[in-house]
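Example S7 (structure tokens).
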């Protein structure tokens, strides 16, 4: 079955039962509206806000905490119950507000659709809401309009559409009406089609609507987004894993303590209360909140580095990324077409400067030339006159209003010193616009002396057959075969550098000459060739190298041609000698398994579609990679959503892409990703630090209670003391650990495996060994004081409580390094010092302030008590603080 772009106008009219002259009748339109539905993108059914909020509490760990809250309340431990409930609610609200913002992508896609369209109905042109369009409608679009549906172009007057957000093309696409018989063309190659949501940047045209709503190319992308499953991040998986482990431990210990206590003759009520206390101790209620706070603090630091995080857990995920799939245009390049070489009068002229700034010079054989080079001045003037772009200044920066290629010619002229006043001496008599059939543009110009001439620009291979003369230093000469060969060699040389080439030619005219294109665009005089490219960002090469040192592979994914993509990749030193480049056709021909087997050797993907990008991301994920996908266009959104972390551009990125992403680069700079990776890695290490600190502290609390039960001793700690330790002594220092600066070698380490558990790299041993010692020294402090004064259980509990707190506060400095407590400067983290001092001060308050003593079951301690407490509490760090294990 032939596709729309393969049919000519008459075949399209016949298939859709319409004529271009009259359009659909009102009755036809109503029938098709019922058949095809409204012309808008569908979104998934929205969940109620209450349901979204309640979903935050379906986690098993949260349910256990809620059960503990109920039990504590029933047993009269209202402080415990209120505190636990408060933490659960805070985390629930955080999750709710994050989820509210997470699925707005389809809404933003809708906003790109044109609100109205000019439609031919019953032979009359009228404006209608674009949602009322149906297949078969005849529509008319002009510069500045958004295409309201997918249309088969039936007439075009220099019409160009900006499709970079949809297809990845970095240049506007010229549209024509001629049928294209080649089968299986991708969207970016269907130049007789215009697609819903794209923008008309030049000219005007008419077309027949062939697809509406979800049947359009944009609708297919929307379907990809809505059908793509979001993969849980490594941090989410690890915290879920940790929660399950802690729940099992808590339930086991609760049952064990109750059983042992009852066996030793303790009352069931007292043992049940002790069991609940141990459950509270085993599950660090503050862990989710502290993780959220640590991620939030990391987010603040990343904002200062021009990276805005939309999803907190994405910070850590970026830190373990092993592949970055990056869009080329606007991400690795500046998205500013720039003239880099000029071939003129047999000379190869190099042009310095990047992007849309007018700073730069012209060189022949490394020797600078100036604006006295009269013939080059003329060539640059011709490029400005045969031009539809304009140079504007916005916020102190030059921007191009119009086609980037035209803009590059204006910038080159300004660099050479050509003033805008010079152009005012010339008047445009007639313009013959560029189109895909002619592949050239011409203007008839009259100078101040009433002398007329035509300027023609276009692809060199299009202009060559029309050349008869050449501009030489001594004037006009006949174009000889050696001249043609020299021009072709210059064009080939530029093409090898992936420079886009535009040739310029002129022809003097008489006042009486006819101005028809077929007459004036022959016997032309060759002037020169421009070679231009969208230049790479300066910082990107260094960023790619640093990512490589960190064990992260950078892959370029672009809609541009293979030659251009390869040249940019080589300039950025992204493509190694043995690296492969694949294009869209090769990707389509490969099975998923073939791509998965080959993808480790591929560094550049060119001429790709949204489906290809999704396929690439999924292939890397199947190889076990954590994939970061960057991009700025609608075409990137499905792959961004499917990746482990999606990164969008803040300046050039579409709203759709930003909403689908987890991270937004406010400066559109690939180098910012490197800074984000470093921050992400550091945040994960900091999370490991406070998990180590919290769990070793909780192990100490559990063991002191369990050992006391086994030894038939009274409970060394009451539930409110355990909760106080969990929320105050554990919480403040743990948050301060989240502010630790990265260690020096953080960007020289290989990415973590996504399968790595939270307790990898010896963390479980460190937690258990330090926790065991903390529990032992706390129990020893309790036994010594209780044996000394058996009638004062409150006194013994106060000493045990203080020993536990001080042991944890000393141990927190050991948690700052994987190697040794002496490996980091203790004064480097001022926030940690303040947190420890605050915890000590609060300990003194609950011990020495009489109103709090009955609540926390404490009493006054003497100096000799503190000597015992400090000696015992320092012991775990003294014994283990200098070892790697």
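Recovered sequence:
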């Amino acid at each position: 079955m032939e596709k729309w772009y393969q049919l000519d106008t008459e075949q399209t009219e016949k298939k859709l039962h319409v004529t271009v002259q009259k359009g659909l009748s009102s009755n036809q339109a109503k029938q098709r509206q019922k058949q095809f539905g409204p012309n808008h993108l569908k979104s998934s059914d929205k969940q109620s806000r209450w349901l979204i909020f309640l979903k935050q509490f379906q986690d098993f760990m949260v349910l256990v905490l809620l059960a503990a809250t109920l039990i504590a309340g029933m047993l009269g431990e209202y402080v415990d119950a209120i505190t636990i409930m408060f933490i659960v609610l805070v985390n629930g609200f955080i999750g709710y507000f994050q989820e509210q913002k997470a699925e707005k992508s389809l809404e933003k896609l809708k906003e790109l659709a044109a609100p109205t369209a000019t439609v031919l109905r019953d032979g009359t042109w009228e404006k209608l809401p674009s949602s009322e369009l149906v297949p078969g409608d005849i529509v008319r679009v002009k510069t500045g309009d958004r295409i309201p549906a997918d249309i088969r172009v039936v007439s075009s007057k220099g019409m160009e559409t900006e499709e970079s957000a949809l297809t990845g093309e970095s240049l506007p696409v010229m549209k024509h009406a001629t049928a294209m018989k080649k089968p299986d063309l991708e969207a970016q190659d269907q130049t007789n089609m215009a697609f819903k949501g794209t923008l008309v940047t030049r000219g005007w045209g008419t077309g027949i609507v062939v697809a509406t709503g979800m049947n359009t190319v944009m609708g297919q992308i929307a379907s990809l987004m809505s059908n793509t499953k979001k993969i849980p991040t490594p941090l989410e998986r690890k915290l879920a894993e940790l929660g399950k482990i802690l729940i099992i431990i808590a339930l086991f210990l609760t049952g064990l303590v109750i059983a042992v206590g009852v066996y030793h003759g303790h009352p069931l009520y007292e043992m049940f209360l002790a069991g609940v206390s141990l459950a509270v101790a085993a599950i660090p209620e503050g862990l989710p909140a502290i993780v959220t706070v640590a991620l939030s603090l990391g987010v603040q630091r990343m904002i200062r580095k021009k990276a805005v995080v939309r999803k907190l857990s994405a910070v850590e995920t970026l830190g373990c990324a092993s592949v970055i799939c990056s869009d080329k245009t606007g991400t690795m390049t500046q998205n500013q077409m720039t003239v880099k070489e000029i071939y003129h009068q047999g000379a190869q002229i190099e042009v310095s400067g990047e992007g849309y700034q007018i700073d730069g010079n012209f060189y022949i054989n490394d020797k600078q030339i100036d604006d006295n080079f009269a013939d080059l001045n003329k060539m640059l003037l011709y490029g400005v006159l045969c031009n539809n772009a304009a140079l504007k200044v916005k916020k102190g920066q030059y921007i191009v209003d119009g086609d980037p290629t035209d803009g590059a010619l204006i910038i080159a002229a300004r660099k050479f010193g050509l003033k805008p006043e010079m152009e005012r001496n010339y008047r445009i008599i007639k313009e013959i616009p560029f189109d895909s059939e002619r592949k050239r543009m011409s203007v008839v110009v009259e100078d101040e002396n009433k002398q007329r001439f035509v300027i023609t620009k276009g692809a060199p291979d299009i202009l060559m057959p029309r050349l008869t003369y050449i501009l030489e230093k001594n004037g006009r000469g006949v174009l000889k075969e050696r001249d043609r060969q020299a021009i072709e060699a210059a064009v080939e040389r530029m093409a090898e550098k992936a420079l886009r080439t535009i040739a310029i030619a002129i022809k003097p005219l008489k006042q009486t000459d006819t101005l028809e294109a077929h007459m004036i665009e022959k016997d032309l005089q060759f002037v020169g060739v421009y070679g231009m490219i969208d230049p790479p960002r300066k910082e990107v090469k260094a960023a790619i190298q640093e990512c490589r040192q960190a064990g992260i592979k950078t892959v370029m994914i672009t809609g541009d041609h293979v030659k251009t993509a390869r040249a940019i990749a080589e300039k950025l030193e992204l493509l190694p000698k043995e690296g492969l480049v694949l294009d869209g056709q090769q990707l389509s021909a490969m099975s998923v398994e073939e791509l998965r087997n080959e993808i480790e050797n591929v560094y550049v993907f060119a001429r790709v579609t949204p489906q290809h990008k999704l396929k690439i991301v999924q292939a890397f994920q199947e190889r076990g990679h954590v994939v970061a996908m960057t991009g700025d266009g609608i075409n990137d959104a499905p792959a961004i959503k499917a990746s482990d972390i999606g990164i969008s551009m803040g300046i050039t990125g579409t709203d759709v892409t930003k909403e689908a992403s987890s991270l937004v680069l406010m400066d559109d700079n690939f180098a910012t990703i490197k800074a984000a990776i470093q921050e992400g890695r550091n945040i994960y290490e900091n999370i490991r630090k406070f998990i180590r600190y919290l769990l070793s502290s909780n192990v100490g609390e559990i063991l002191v209670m369990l050992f006391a039960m086994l030894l038939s001793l009274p409970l060394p700690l009451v539930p409110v003391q355990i909760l106080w330790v969990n929320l105050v002594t554990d919480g403040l220092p743990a948050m301060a650990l989240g502010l630790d600066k990265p260690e020096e070698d953080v960007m020289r380490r290989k990415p973590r495996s996504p399968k790595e558990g939270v307790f990898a790299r010896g963390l479980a041993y460190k937690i258990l060994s330090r926790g065991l010692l903390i529990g032992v020294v706390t129990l020893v402090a309790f036994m010594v004081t209780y044996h000394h004064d058996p009638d004062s259980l409150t006194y013994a509990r106060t000493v045990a409580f203080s020993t536990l707190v001080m042991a944890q506060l000393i141990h927190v400095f050991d948690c700052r390094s994987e190697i040794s407590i002496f490996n980091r400067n203790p004064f480097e983290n001022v926030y940690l010092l303040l947190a420890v001092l605050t915890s000590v001060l609060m300990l003194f308050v609950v011990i020495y302030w009489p109103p709090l003593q009955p609540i926390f079951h404490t009493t006054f301690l003497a100096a000799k008590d503190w000597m015992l407490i400090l000696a015992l509490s320092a012991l775990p760090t003294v014994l283990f603080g200098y070892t790697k294990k």
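Notes on this example. The radius of gyration is 36 Å.
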